[in-house]
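Hey, resending since the last one bounced:
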Amino acid sequence: MPLSKESKADSRFDSRLKQDLSEMEGRIKRRFDLRLDDAFTRLSQHILHEVGTRFDETNARLESIDSRLKLQAGLIQSGARAMSRFSAFAENSEE
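The structure tokens again:
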């Protein structure tokens, strides 16, 4: 049974519609992928910036702590030397 002119036209319309919808779907997917890539790029740049900022803050804090520890170590060392001299003086003066 041969297809009528209307059914041939309908099948051509259906195939054209399927092709158009497929092309639209492809464009939408590409656009979505681009937006997703942009969003991921922005997010990763923001995270890297935050990590860098926190690292700089932590580094400054550690440098401050290091300076204070060096000062305290110097005071302890000079105190120990003074105590040693005092002890030596005390022993020599008793003789």
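The first helix runs from residue 5 to 94.

Sorry for the duplicate.
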